[in-house]
From TrEMBL, chain A:
One of its GO terms (molecular function) is branched-chain amino acid transmembrane transporter activity. Keywords: Cell membrane, Membrane, Transmembrane, Transmembrane helix. The chain crosses the membrane at residues 9-29, 49-82, 126-148, 155-173, 203-224, 254-273, 293-315, 327-348. NCBIfam families: urea_trans_UrtC. GO terms for cellular component: plasma membrane. It is found in: Cell membrane. Pfam families: BPD_transp_2. It is a multi-pass membrane protein. This is Urea ABC transporter permease subunit UrtC. InterPro entries: ABC_transp_permease (IPR001851), ABC_transptr_urea_perm_UrtC (IPR017778), LivM-like (IPR043428).
UniProtKB/TrEMBL annotation, chain B:
This is Urea ABC transporter ATP-binding protein UrtD. It holds the Pfam family ABC_tran. The keyword tRNA processing does not apply. One of its GO terms (cellular component) is plasma membrane. It comes from the Bacteria. The keyword Nucleotide-binding applies. PANTHER family: CONSERVED COMPONENT OF ABC TRANSPORTER FOR NATURAL AMINO ACIDS-RELATED, HIGH-AFFINITY BRANCHED-CHAIN AMINO ACID TRANSPORT ATP-BINDING PROTEIN. InterPro entries: ABC_AA/LPS_Transport (IPR051120), ABC_transporter-like_ATP-bd (IPR003439), ABC_transptr_urea_ATP-bd_UrtD (IPR017781), BCA_ABC_TP_C (IPR032823), P-loop_NTPase (IPR027417). The lineage of its organism: Bacteria, Pseudomonadati, Pseudomonadota, Alphaproteobacteria, Acetobacterales. It comes from Gluconacetobacter johannae. PROSITE patterns: ABC_TRANSPORTER_2. Residues 7-246 form the ABC transporter domain. Keywords: ATP-binding, Nucleotide-binding, Transport.
Length: 373, 246
């Protein structure tokens, strides 16, 4: 894993994300008669893709660099989304259907008399920001600590990550949990006083999403690019060897796992702000599996591939489901199989291959070594 | 012969699913000593190293190193105490460069948080260069370790062991798959290392053991069958029996 070559693309991809987001945001502020005008619908879609790209980046960090095939990362995404959703629901205030200034509509509907204790403080934006990070972070820390210290790995770990998100989905479907049951949290009006339905607010949120994603890309690049990143690769490819050198791979994995969960959580918060709803469906096991496919398609272990894969596959999904909705899942499955068979390094690997051909030089390739060790 | 034992195993037994891989094994190594362990396949040589390095917990028995009870520690803690281990199958980080393999091995930073902020110091660069020289890998410093030959990987792993600066090196079949010239060079290297460190080396290759010129322990069915100089041990009828009878 020789740094500069492997991660040159991260900076370029982050820059591209910023430029495209800025162009779309500006376009959405033009009058509809202008030929360069962008519809608010497109801005929201782009914001959603960038939120998903955060999830993909989180998945790539643990799968690509420490070899943890997570099949439950949407859980952290959704928890971050719910924490943000709580704040947005409180901001509705007395403008809800029942006009109750203290209780969200769904609690009035359930004839609750007061807010449950875990909703306290959720009307403060700083508390909400802390919850967006703290709740998924704490869950990831607890889960990771238990799993890694007992040396659960490989397919067993994948299965329990899947079980985790499934269990959360079932829990969030319960009305009694206090998060709106199967309807989830929605009907948001504004954030920090800005009307969520105004094009200006939406354009601003898209720009913020792009900035956060670019920042997360550079931060993860710094994490995996240095000496710590070398240790990650070592743990990924020959975990037991690192123990006999005196390292504790469980600690290494825990640190990266929690960092990854935080990235996913922020992605979830950005998602809810722009999509305007969060419900238990976001915990569905299929969502986590899709996020792994985005990473595989874009290129595992490249960071930029995760972002590219998330955006392209979701763009494909938007177009495809409008056209042949019932065939989307087959298309996604075929895409995954084709990638696995023909593009083991994903689109980024393909790009590097073409570049290499053109430059007639042979830079060292970074390829995950066989897991045998 | 009266020096304080650096490593001591006493009455150690391990059973895998009812099969006694190590059976009341006792062995002691003085500070500064190099010992060769020989024995037929399945004698328990690798399992003995697993026990010393914390990979396998013994069912019974005492395992002590420099006054520390090793049976209560995990692999990382034992490595930090100063025991380095080379595996039977060479195990290096194939996706990393030779240099980065050595960098990760260097004694010192082990906490993940410390590594997050760490920059390579000039002192570390010097240590790496020295290791590259010892292992004759300097021309391959920037090459991915996965691309090395089998013998080079064995040497890189020995280099990583030295990077840990252990008091004791456990070396499992270091010359398997090496040419004769490489085998003799490895014997020289180990003798050189033994000037400052204690070494336990497991090996089948009798030419190699002879070249080391050290005391030999013969393992058989999980316990010590014979111990002493190579000539005496190889003349022992029980040893001949075990080797011919396998
Ligand atoms: N983890 C294990 N589980 C079951 N049996 C094992 C395990 N490790 C070693 N053994 C058995 O213990 C015996 C000793 O093996 P080993 O120590 O590898 O021998 P050697 O290194 O001397 O060739 C062998 O019969 C082997 O099959
Ligand atoms: Mg063996």
């Amino acid at each position: 894993m020789t740094g500069e070559f492997a991660f040159r693309g991260v900076v370029r991809t982050a820059a591209a994300v910023l430029v495209v987001a800025a162009l779309l945001a500006l376009g959405s502020l033009l009058p509809a008669s202008n030929p360069l005008s962008v519809s608010p619908f497109v801005v929201t879609l782009a914001g959603k893709y960038l939120a998903y790209a955060m999830l993909a980046l989180a998945v790539d960090l643990v799968w690509g660099f420490v070899g943890i095939l997570t099949l439950g990362h949407a859980a952290f995404f959704a928890l971050g989304g719910y924490a943000m959703g709580m704040y947005l629901v409180r901001e509705i205030g007395a403008r809800g259907v029942y006009g109750n200034p203290d209780l969200p509509d769904f609690m009035v509907f359930l004839s609750w008399k007061s807010l449950p204790w875990y909703w306290w403080g959720s009307d403060h934006v700083l508390v909400a920001a802390v919850l967006v990070l703290a709740v998924p972070g704490a869950l990831a820390a607890l889960f990771g600590w238990l799993a890694f210290r007992s040396r659960v790995g490989g397919v067993y770990l994948s299965i329990i990550t899947q079980a985790l998100t499934y269990a959360l989905m079932l829990a969030f479907f319960q009305n009694g949990l206090g998060f709106g049951g199967n309807n989830g949290l929605t009907d948001f009006k504004d954030v920090l006083g800005f009307d969520l339905h105004q094009p200006g607010t939406r354009a601003g949120l898209l720009i913020i999403s792009a900035l956060v994603l670019a920042g997360a890309m550079l931060a993860t690049r710094a994490l995996v690019g240095g000496r710590f990143g070398r240790l990650l690769i070592a743990v990924r490819d020959a975990q037991s060897r690192t123990r006999f050198l005196g390292y504790r791979p469980d600690q290494v994995k825990l640190l990266v796992w929690v960092a990854s969960a935080l990235i996913a959580a922020v992605g979830g918060a950005l998602y809810v702000l722009q999509v305007g709803i969060i419900n238990p469906g976001e915990f569905a096991p299929a969502n986590s599996i899709e996020s792994v496919i985005w990473v595989a398609v874009g290129g595992r272990g490249t960071l930029s591939g995760a972002v590219i894969g998330a955006v392209l596959v979701n763009l494909g999904k938007t177009l495809f489901t409008a056209w042949l909705p019932e065939l989307w899942l087959y298309g996604l499955g075929a895409l995954f199989i084709a990638t696995t068979l023909f593009l083991p390094q994903g689109l980024v690997g393909l790009g590097r291959h073409i570049n290499r051909r053109r430059d007639e030089v042979t830079p060292e390739v970074t390829r995950p070594a066989g897991d045998a060790a | 012969m009266s020096g304080e034992a650096l490593l001591e195993l006493r009455g150690v037994s391990v059973t895998f699913d009812g099969f006694r891989a190590i059976n009341d094994l006792s062995l002691s190594l003085r500070q500064g000593e190099m010992r060769a362990i020989v024995g037929p396949n399945g004698a328990g040589k690798t399992t003995m190293m697993d026990i010393i390095t914390g990979k396998t917990r013994p069912d019974t028995g005492v395992v002590r190193f420099a006054g520390h009870d090793l049976t209560k520690r995990d692999e990382a803690a034992i490595a930090r105490l100063g025991i380095g281990r080379k595996f039977q199958k060479p195990t290096v980080f194939e996706a990393l460069s030779v240099r980065d393999n050595l960098l990760l091995s260097l004694k010192g930073l082990r906490s993940p948080f410390a590594l997050l902020l760490a920059r390579e110091t000039a002192e570390e660069a010097g240590r790496i260069d020295a290791l590259l020289g010892i292992t004759r890998l300097a021309p391959h410093a920037r090459v991915q370790a996965g691309g090395l030959s089998h013998g080079q990987k064995q040497w890189l792993e020995i280099g990583m062991l030295l990077g840990q600066e252990p008091q004791l090196l456990l070396v499992d079949e270091p010359v398997a798959g090496m040419t004769d010239a490489e085998t003799m060079a490895t014997a020289d290297l180990l003798r050189d290392i033994n000037r400052t460190r204690s070494v336990v080396v497991v090996e089948h290759d009798m030419e190699f053991v002879r070249a080391l010129g050290v005391g030999v322990t013969v393992l058989h069915e999980g316990s010590v069958l014979a111990e002493g100089a190579l000539e005496a041990v190889s003349a022992d009828p029980r040893v001949i029996d075990v080797y011919l009878g396998r």
